[in-house]
Amino acid sequence: MEVLSSVNIPKRNEETHKGDYGKILLIGGNVNLGGAIMLAARACVFSGSGLITVATHPTNHAALHSRCPEAMVIDINDTKMLTKMIEHTDCILIGPGLGCDFKGNNAITFLLQNIQPHQTLIVDGDAITIFSKLKPDIPSCNVIFTPHPKEWERLSNIPVDEQTYERNREAVDQLGSTVILKKHGTEIYFKNSDYKLPIGTPAMATGGMGDTLAGMITSFIGQFDNFEEAVTSATYTHSYIGEELSSSMYVVPPSRLINEIPYVMKSLES
Amino acid sequence: MEVLSSVNIPKRNEETHKGDYGKILLIGGNVNLGGAIMLAARACVFSGSGLITVATHPTNHAALHSRCPEAMVIDINDTKMLTKMIEHTDCILIGPGLGCDFKGNNAITFLLQNIQPHQTLIVDGDAITIFSKLKPDIPSCNVIFTPHPKEWERLSNIPVDEQTYERNREAVDQLGSTVILKKHGTEIYFKNSDYKLPIGTPAMATGGMGDTLAGMITSFIGQFDNFEEAVTSATYTHSYIGEELSSSMYVVPPSRLINEIPYVMKSLES
Amino acid sequence: MEVLSSVNIPKRNEETHKGDYGKILLIGGNVNLGGAIMLAARACVFSGSGLITVATHPTNHAALHSRCPEAMVIDINDTKMLTKMIEHTDCILIGPGLGCDFKGNNAITFLLQNIQPHQTLIVDGDAITIFSKLKPDIPSCNVIFTPHPKEWERLSNIPVDEQTYERNREAVDQLGSTVILKKHGTEIYFKNSDYKLPIGTPAMATGGMGDTLAGMITSFIGQFDNFEEAVTSATYTHSYIGEELSSSMYVVPPSRLINEIPYVMKSLES
Amino acid sequence: MEVLSSVNIPKRNEETHKGDYGKILLIGGNVNLGGAIMLAARACVFSGSGLITVATHPTNHAALHSRCPEAMVIDINDTKMLTKMIEHTDCILIGPGLGCDFKGNNAITFLLQNIQPHQTLIVDGDAITIFSKLKPDIPSCNVIFTPHPKEWERLSNIPVDEQTYERNREAVDQLGSTVILKKHGTEIYFKNSDYKLPIGTPAMATGGMGDTLAGMITSFIGQFDNFEEAVTSATYTHSYIGEELSSSMYVVPPSRLINEIPYVMKSLES
């Protein structure tokens, strides 16, 4: 694996508008786990997405707007509205706080029926667990899975302590999707290349950190033309901020990491 | 067009009270797009408006108060209350997060029936789209439209790539209102003069930035005697803050731009 | 009138607990004006009150907790609970965002039936207007009114432009309560003395600033033994913070003024 | 009693994930007192807990997520969900904002029927008062009570002014649990040792400060192997931050103390 020792974030062109920076749809947040999708949404805003819609349970709408007025919201159960939003979107994230019950299943099934080949799908958290159980056909669009080792075990059938590079690489090839394996020394597997992060810190081992990364990846893909660079840049930037903050913080609350995104992206701008 | 290279913000007189700084009514925010009107409201507060009322869908009230306790709220569907508020207001903004469906139409129709000649009306976002479709008589009061190029196309029938100064100027003259055309190098068209902004940055190309500008314009008009100076000052200040922040931020989240308004207004005070 | 050129805030004794710093009840906030009581509540917390309960309309509870988790909430319409809270309270503020309709009337009437001689009552905002109309007997406890000039006109029948020291002093004597007349050069009238503030700034002329002051006064009275010093200290500290912030801010949003209270109180500690 | 003059917070191991830093359940927050459990939850997040679930009244869910998206929420009245959560938890805090009525009683009774010997239970605030009345059998797991002197009087039957070291020590031995007696010079009683804090400040005498401490203790126990060190570290860190902030703040709002936790934990890291 190549060690990912730096990234470059593309400079924005002067003559652009918000429509040039991605139409994003985030699907997740049930009655109990709403905070996850709020973190993902705010990570998108602070990463630079132009237009963000969040499909979540109505009990989450007030808190979402309170934390993140830049995003739009729809009811995750309003299939008519959801169909319309899926149609007009570039990048779709499903999973943060989705829940693993039948409602989560339904949301994924519904999405897979409506997603189009030119779109990108990011599958995170509970959605990975559901994918592992339902084993649906992977859609023909660009698909990224962002599992931690236990979720990767479910998806690949490789037990956590047998997750070597060779076995992971083989499983990814079989899956045919991009995989970001989140752990100490996060690994990114593309079709023809793979990278390992030399940065990261146990101060980031906290609830909501994965939802934040998922939001950043979705946002970067929506903004940047080069898919692989978008994925590596987002993952690197996330760990980079965490490591920077951990020099003065024992633990890095995800909401604080998000605050730093625009500053660190600027410092990584080429 | 004159290049708008600086503005002066009037110093407040000592012997004044909140009633001297504008009675503002903001109309917008449906079930899905509530964040837009929250951004506009907080931009008003941080720009110095004395009294701000927000007419929005009740699902937005908790989040609005959570972010912006300085504003009052009413139910956008409570026509009795809305009538009363319109009557007691100096400046009315309609549009942020209003939605383009029949409810949005109704809100505009209702407002146009009740607005009075001495008031100022700012038409933003979805309200511009509705105006373009309904083609109502422009009310006899001071009216400002704040379109981005696509919205201006709808309103003026000039395709985006044919929006030259000459054609815009002609269309504005025909419309008889003030037009702020938001883009790289924002243009401001008054009846007898027009200005071009030499500042601005693609870091401001993000959802909610227009709602924030609309709130600032409304607030400045409510505070300052000179209408044209109020409009140019607000527009300039908005871009100026964005440009300043973009030296350290890759993208400028609207909620962060708002935080800076009082400081930058002070620095521009004459 | 004596010019109030400085104040001293008493140092806290080591062997004390939250019960020593006042049991406060704040009554206000209807469906439209909830933000006012939220500002008052947070001003209490940041001024050092030990125990704060807010009686407000249930639609305000989520936003109140979101901004100010340190306060407790009750439903303003739950008279059983309200009776119990009034009984166990030292200081009661009524008015911010109360509304001037029959519900506001009822809240005041109910409070006046239950208030006890050893308590202190602060009457602010809409509650002053209702007092002016209902003309109830002033309760035998310590009572403070915090009108701006128009509210003082309603309460005293002195037109705004005839509010001279002599006429104000006479009206206060007749009223038998403490009056804080909020304006450029705020005036404080006690039974046997009166003060004029040499500080203050038009940057404070903004919605919610009076609610913030009302919260501070209530909190200071709950904490400090000397009633007159508590009132003058709170009023002075409020204007002092506003003036300090106005050196860098064109307008001082009340929520920002509140953030500074603990720091400025420390600097004024004797 | 030993004077607790310093603590060391263990460095995190590189190869760890959020599951290594404690599964926490917080139970509290009725319709009136929801802010207390929100403060405890945010204190947990900022102290480094990996997974936090809050069981509270549904009216508190929106504000909780608004302040603390890192936590999960469940309805405190959903016994099926609650049973499941208790089963999968390491550390349980009950009490902040629970209320002393029959619902609070029920929550405690239910918890005591379901708690397991390997878990740790922290009993705070209203839960202490209910324990004092119900006098249930103390469960066989590790139990900590965090009373202030009045609550300790209720639990131990020692009047506040007779709470000497000898009598407290005897009562703790009889109780068979750990007791943290919160006061000027907080005392910590373990089975075979006891400590007195030389730090603390009356600037911390404010509502919500105890809820914050309870959250920190719960979080530290969930993270650190050594039980006694976890308890002393949390208590010391809480007072240490309060004392630091009090050099510039007259009163320390609990929400501000929480912001500092990660920084101070880093500075105390060994």
From TrEMBL, chains A, B, C, D:
InterPro entries associated with the record: Carbohydrate_kinase_pred_CS, CARKD, Ribokinase-like
PROSITE patterns: YJEF_C_2, YJEF_C_3
Cited CDD domains: YXKO-related
Binding sites annotated in the UniProt record for (6S)-NADPHX: A36, G97, H148, D211
Names of the cofactor(s): Mg(2+)
Domain (YjeF C-terminal) ranges: 1-268
UniProt KW keywords: ATP-binding, Lyase, NAD, NADP, Nucleotide-binding
A Pfam family this chain is assigned to: Carb_kinase
Source taxon at top rank: Bacteria
EC number: 4.2.1.136
Recorded catalytic activity of this chain's protein: (6S)-NADPHX + ADP = AMP + phosphate + NADPH + H(+); (6S)-NADHX + ADP = AMP + phosphate + NADH + H(+)
Binding-site positions, AMP: K182, K183, H184, G185, T186, G210
EC class name: lyase
Chain's role: Catalyzes the dehydration of the S-form of NAD(P)HX at the expense of ADP, which is converted to AMP. Together with NAD(P)HX epimerase, which catalyzes the epimerization of the S- and R-forms, the enzyme allows the repair of both epimers of NAD(P)HX, a damaged form of NAD(P)H that is a result of enzymatic or heat-dependent hydration.
Subunit structure: Homotetramer.
Family: Belongs to the NnrD/CARKD family.
HAMAP family: NADHX_dehydratase (MF_01965)
UniProt name for this protein: ADP-dependent (S)-NAD(P)H-hydrate dehydratase
Gene: nnrD
